Amino acid sequence: KDITTGAQSTKHGVHRGMSSVTIPPPACMLRPLEAPFRYLFGPGPSNVPPRVLAAGGRPIIGHMHSEMFGIMNDIKKGIQYAFQTSNNMTLAMSGSGHTAMECALFNIVEPGESVLVAINGIWGERVAEISERMGAKVHTLVKTPGGHFTNAEIEQALAKHKPVLFFLTHGESSAGLVHPVDGVGDICHKYNCLLLVDSVASLGAAPLLMDQQNIDILYTGSQKALNAPPGTAPISFSERACHKMFNRKAKPVSYLLDMTHLSNYWGNDGKPERTYHHTGPVSGFFALRESLAILAETGLENSWKHHTEVAEYFWKGLEDLGLKLFIKDKDLRLPSVTTIAIPEGYNWKELLAYIMKHHRIEFTGGLGPSVGMLLRIGLMGYNCNKANAAMALAALEDALKQCRMSKA
Question: At what positions is N6-(pyridoxal phosphate)lysine found (predicted)?
C-alpha cells in the first residue's frame, strides 16, 4: 500500500482507495449569493454602469483566441488615448493598481540602485516599502498629507541622490490632492532619471498628458473614474523606460510581472506569435475595454471638465454646511476625491456608520498617514453628477444633525 496516496497495489494494477469525506458542505455555500446595493461615494471602487457590467457578463472566450487578442489590441489603443501617449509598450496588468505599481518597480529597478520617492500620502509610502523589499537604495522626499513638492525641491533631491527612478503620485487619494506634474519629467531627464507616476485616482478626472509631460512610466486602476470593476490596471512605458527595462543585468524578481513575457502576451514585442504566459482575466478585459470605449466617446477634455464642474458644485455645498475642505488651494484639489477636515466635536467613525446605515452611502475616513485627519468622498465617472453630489450633501447634513457631538 502507498501510504502517501492511500492507493493499494495488487497484481491486477493500482486501485485508488476512496476515503470518506469528513468536512461537510458549508451551510453558507448552500445559500444564494447576496450582495447589497450601495452608493459607492468613497475613493473607489465606484458604482459600475450597466453597460460595463453587461460587457463583463458576456460569455468567456479563450485567453489565447484571436478574438481575445483583438480585444486586447483595442484596450491598448484605449489606454494610449486615456494616457495621451503613442508608446508601443502599453498594456493592462492582470490585477489591481498595486500590480502595476510592482510591475513598474520590479522591471525598472535593480537591487542596489537608487530610487527617489515623493511621499505625501499612502502611495509614496507603499512604493518606498516595495523598493526597499527588492533591495533598492531608497531616498524619500516627505510632506504631511496634503503637502506638495516644488520642482526646485525635486531637482535638489535628484541632484543629491542621483536615482534611476523618481516616483510621484498625481492623484493622492489619501489626502485629496492632485499634484502638479509640469516640468518634472524634464528635470528627471536632465539627471538621467526616469519618472514614474501613479494616476489611479486621477485618470479621466484631472488633466494628465503622458507624452507632453515627459512621463516615463504611467499606471492607473480600472475601478475609479474608468468605472470598470477592480482587477485590471493600465500601464505604459516610454522608449527610455524600455531601454532600461530590457537591458537589465538580472531578471526581475517576479515571473508574473516580467515585461519580457508580458510584452509578448500583449503583442508589443514585434514577434509574429504570442505565446502563453498566464491566463488573463477575460471578463475583466471585456469590462475594461467597454469603460475605455465610454471614455473615448465622452472625450478626455469633456470628462475633465465634467469632473471639475461637479467637484466645484460639491465643494460649495460642503462649505455651505460649515465644513472645511482639507486641501485649501482649489487648484490642488483632486476633482474625483474630495477631502474634508473632520468636523470639530464629532466622532468620524460614527458619522460614516450613520450614513451607511441610514443612506446606504459609502464615505471613508483617511488612509495611511491621513487616518483621523479627514473624511473622503469620491464622485467619479458614472457617479460624477450633481444629483449624486446633492445626495451626498443631504446625507452629511443629516448625519451632522443626528450624531451626537462628543464632549472631547
Answer: 224
Q: Which domain holds residue 269?
A: 50-297
List Cβ neighbours of 368 (8 Å cut-off, separation of 6 or more): 121, 122, 125, 174
Residues in a beta bridge with 140: 117
Final residue of a domain: which of 297, 331, 350? 297
Say if pTM beats, i.e. exceeds, 0.85: yes
Cα distances (angstroms) measured from residue 333 to each of 122, 124, 201, 206: 17, 18, 12, 10
Residue type, 289: R
Q: Is the same domain home to 313 and 279? A: no
> Could you tell me the CATH number of the domain that includes residue 284?
3.40.640.10
Strand, coil or helix: what is 148?
Answer: coil
> Any residues with CB less than 8 A from the CB of 270 and at least 6 apart, and which?
none
- Give the whole-angstrom CA distance, residue 178 versus residue 180: 7
- Looking at the structure of the chain, the number of domains it has is 2
- What is the per-residue pLDDT across 156-200, written as a single tens digit (0 to 9) for each? 999 999 999 999 999 999 999 999 999 999 999 999 999 999 999
